[in-house]
Design goal:
The complex is a heterodimer of chains A (196) and B (162). Chain A has 6 helices and 2 strands; from the N terminus they run αααααββα. The chains are: A mainly alpha (196), B mainly alpha (162).
Chain lengths: 196, 162
């Protein structure tokens, strides 16, 4: 130890107050009960804070249930509006149901698409079928004229239009029920299977 | 554990108080910090690894820093670490030595906080450099270097005329 260190060590540090000794020594004497006191205090604190925690839990539950019920209500309202809109729309004469095809008495099947409707159809012009369809085809068309979406019906009609040519070439009756109604294949099931 | 803590307190109470006073700059806060540290230490279930005295110094230091944060006090030494008028040295009879001791205490008070912490823990707490390093989270070699440099600085200042 150097001379300076000795000199520094000889300096007298300030004494802490007497109260510090009392406080610290009492802490040693009661330190055996510190844990017990802390645990009691912790329990007391938990009891005091219990109503607050319960209130927070209640609020959280209400928020969650409110969010879920609101979401369900919005879903139901949306479904109701979605179902009701077509009927409301039909009152103004713009119903998509009004675009359904019709078959006149002379056997000519005319698609009654509006001009603007042809834009979103895969057929850009009025689709007219030849009148020499067999009675079987006419019956099928009569059955299906009212129901179904317009798009599916037009697709069906395109198949039928090709069918008339097919009937003429083969001398057989075109069976609609066995026809493959597919966007890519306008052909009967047999031809489809064969790969024709 | 309790008896060991009491022994450490009785042996180092002045140094612990001085360390807390170095950080807080206020005797009242320093006492609070020492008390708070021992309350925490008494609640410990297992004895710490290593030397207990070093652990107590670290606990007091942490408590003092917490006290400062709580009261948002700037760490400025407002109160001296030493009793200026009373010098218990055999050389105290000599007026020149009295003056030297007063100058020395004043110079130590003027040191920066971390250096004073090292001085208190090394000289009055008798901790090793490793222990001081662990208290300050600083490498022991750094602590030793700073300690020696501080001694050199103090010697140089004392050599000058007042």
């Amino acid at each position: 130890m150097s001379e300076l260190e000795k000199r520094v060590r000889e300096l007298t540090l300030r004494e802490p107050g007497d109260t510090l000794d009392q406080r610290v020594l009492s802490c040693f004497q009661s330190s055996g009960n510190v844990a017990a006191r802390e645990s009691v205090f912790g329990r007391h604190e938990a009891e005091v804070n219990a109503p607050l925690k319960n209130a927070l839990t209640r609020i959280r539950r209400r928020v969650i249930s409110g969010t879920i019920s609101g979401f369900v209500a919005a879903l139901l309202v949306g479904m109701a509006i979605g179902n009701g809109l077509p009927s409301v729309w039909s009152r103004f004469g713009h119903s998509p149901a009004g675009r359904s095809s019709s078959i006149p008495a002379d056997g000519t099947v005319v698609s009654t698409y509006d001009e603007d409707a042809s834009a979103d159809s895969e057929f850009s012009h009025r689709h007219r079928m030849t009148p020499d369809l067999s009675q079987h085809l006419r019956d099928e068309l009569q059955k299906r004229k009212s129901a179904g979406s317009q798009f599916v019906e037009s697709h069906y009609l395109s198949a039928i239009a090709g069918a008339s040519l097919w009937e003429r070439q083969n001398g057989e009756k075109f069976d609609v029920t066995t026809h493959v109604s597919d966007r890519r294949f306008d052909m009967c099931r047999d031809c489809h299977r064969v790969g024709g | 554990m309790r008896a060991e803590l009491e022994q450490v307190y009785r042996q180092h109470r002045q140094a612990l108080f001085a360390l807390a006073l170095t950080i807080t700059g206020c005797a009242g806060l320093a006492e609070d910090a020492v008390h708070e540290a021992f309350v925490r230490l008494c609640g410990m279930q297992k004895p710490p690894s290593g030397r207990l005295a070093a652990y107590v110094f670290a606990a007091v230091r942490n408590a003092a820093v917490d006290c400062c944060r709580r009261v948002k006090r700037e760490r400025i030494v407002a109160e001296t670490l030493f009793v200026v008028a009373t010098i218990s040295s055999p050389l105290a009879a000599d007026a020149a030595n009295d003056e030297l001791a007063e100058r020395l205490s004043r110079e130590i008070d003027l040191l920066d906080e971390s250096t004073r912490e090292i001085m208190v823990m090394k000289i009055f707490g008798e901790l090793t450099f490793d222990e001081i390093g662990s208290v300050l989270n600083t490498p022991a070699a750094t602590v030793a270097t700073r300690y020696r440099r501080t001694l050199m600085t103090l010697e140089e200042r004392l050599r000058r005329d007042p």
